[in-house]
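Data availability (excerpt). All sequences and predicted token strings are deposited with the supplementary files. A representative entry, Transcriptional repressor NrdR, is shown inline so that the format can be inspected without opening the archive.
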Amino acid sequence: MRCPFCGGSETQVKDSRSTEDDTAIRRRRICSSCGGRFTTFERVQLRELTVVKRTGRRVPFDREKLARSVQIAMRKRPVEPESIERMVSGIVRQLESSGETDIQAENIGNLVMEGLKALDDVAYVRFASVYKNFREAKDFEALLDEMSGPEGEIIAE
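Structure token line:
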């Protein structure tokens, strides 16, 4: 592991522990060259995943990109970071355990939509507006109508 401060290749692990949801190992490291301290995370990767975009273009799956898009939808919402991390980890586990190495971007988007709908309605609408490429106010109205129950109340699942 290279030191992010000096680029030295000699680092030592000072402490290791599982994350709260047991999906990664957190390692506290120290650089032998400069004495800099930093943290790394180690995750299990069952298989290499490739995302097939709507255009047919193929790109490697990037967990961090998925997490960033969820974080953007959740910005300034009263949801615990641990809940968001559990949702992202759950989506990644579903993708890896599907048995497929090529994943349609649409499938990932649908999994994110399901997860956000369960966590926060506002984040769900934010993500949907980008994911479904809303262009007019009526697109939002249609989504809100879809979310509403017979009495016009928002359905929480």
